[in-house]
Amino acid sequence: MNPVKVGLLGLGTVGGGTVKVLTRNAQEIMRRAGRGIEIVHASARDLGKPRICDTTGITLTQDPFEVVNNPELQVIVELIGGMDQARELVLRAIANGKHVVTANKALIAKHGNEIFAAARVKGVMVAFEAAVAGGIPIIKAIREGLAGNRIEWLAGIINGTGNFILTEMRDKGRDFADVLAEAQRLGYAEADPTFDVEGIDAAHKLTILASIAFGIPLQFDKAYTEGITRITRQDVGYAEKLGYRIKHLGIARRTAEGIELRVHPTLIPHRRLIANVDGVMNAVLVQGDAVGPTLFYGAGAGAEPTASAVVADLVDVVRTLTADPENRVPHLAFQPDALSDLPILPMEKVETAYYLRMQAQDRPGVLADVTRILADQSISIEAILQKAPVNGGDGSVPVVILTHRIREQQMNEAIRRIEALGTIAAPVMRMRLEHLAK
Fold first, then answer.
1. Which among 328, 355, 343 is positioned nearest to 415, based on CA atoms?
2. Domain for residue 438, yes or no?
3. DSSP secondary structure of 214-253
4. Which domain range does residue 375 map to?
5. pLDDT interval class at 392 (50, 70, 90)
6. Cα–Cα distance for residue pair 203/137, rounded to 1 Å
7. Which letter does DSSP use for residue 3 in this model?
8. Do 183 and 286 reside in the same domain of the chain?
9. DSSP string of 66-92, one letter each residue
10. Which are the catalytic amino acids?
11. What pTM was estimated for this model as a whole?
């Protein structure tokens, strides 16, 4: 049988890795797919740039539309990133009757509903395993391997840059700004690190995971995001003393009222496996009603780890080229006419435990005022950590409080009232706390 001809948009890190993996493992891939898979046409912005792969036999162009309009190609792999042009190219490829493989999490999170609808009309596949957690096959695991389960919740370290920063802060007692600068030098963080450190990148990925876990439309605009820029090495140290570690988690949970969809710094017990995922590695913990907790761990980025997911998607596409479109695995795991209208909960309605750090005047009655405010909001305390005043200081001391679970709305009101006290220096540092047990 003739090889399947593929067009590649983007010959950067992941594009080059994809060519390398396809070339190196050609025989193994053909045995799995039943046919050869060959990249024969590719686009790149700079054709003279050195590549990490051998492009012999590949027709190169600077015009990506030349690739998607090539009638000989059956599959288009989109690895250029970005939004507007990528969306136009993917929709053009679909309109031309071509299957699509993409690693573009922002594109899927924001425009996936539109793209999948167009693909259903044309009877083509859109595969996007590489869009979440690099080489970890988490989408296939939830969509297919856990298809017999009612997914209750999932929590993931799905941005390696943020995890590297928090790991260095914990292990070496370094400040956020110092570690961020090193992450940029090492190439883990972009010159503008906003998407990573503010949780936007993780929210793109969480939106996709929540959709396939709960059978809901993609709703990135309703995801709550909070970054790690306010975390100090003192916060990391206090968390350790209390038996917790701080991770920048994406959490999606099914509740009776709707779906929680949130990315924020989170304290988790240090004995949890996911609390020990360090450096640039990723991990996703999924709780199913039948299987219980399952943890998926691996490299969340990089040329060949991400290429591993891209090539796996190519194999899936090739295996189903002759399959009836109505009998393929649905893009979002559930049949399109069976998606749920469960609402995404506003953050004010989410219930979780909390870590609070405040700078309080070292005088009698101050802590009593704080605990009275918490009690007025029905917030019970799990632990209090108060440091001794520093000689020659300003007469204030850091106070750390861990609370039991309470609605965010009540905690917001408590923090507002605490910050209004003349004996407390605003702002109060607040982080959520999750035990991730059930």
1. 355
2. no
3. HT----GGG-EE--STT--HHHHHHHHHTTEEEEEEEEEE
4. 347-433
5. low
6. 18
7. P
8. yes
9. HHHT-TT-SEEEE---SSHHHHHHHHH
10. 205
11. 0.94
CB contact at 8 A, 260 and 350: yes
The Cα 210–Cα 218 span in angstroms is 8
- State the sign of the Cα–Cα–Cα–Cα dihedral 132, 136, 138, 140: positive
The residue whose two tokens read 């993996």 is 21
Q: What pLDDT digit, counting tens, does each position of 353-385 carry?
A: 999 999 999 889 999 999 999 999 999 999 999
Residues 204 and 96 in one domain: no
Looking at the structure, tell me whether residues 131 and 208 fall in a common domain: no
Instruction: Provide the domain count of the chain.
Output: 3
- CA-CA-CA-CA torsion sign (369, 375, 379, 380): positive
Q: Which two tokens stand for residue 79?
A: 């690895």
Q: Residue 206: give its domain's CATH number.
A: 3.30.360.10
Name residues whose C-beta falls within 8 Å of residue 393's C-beta, 6 or more positions apart in sequence: none
Together in a domain, 128 and 9: yes
Based on the fold, state whether residues 176 and 245 are members of the same structural domain. yes
Residue that the structure tokens 């993931």 belong to: 156
Residue 244 backbone dihedrals phi, psi, to 5 degrees = -130, 165
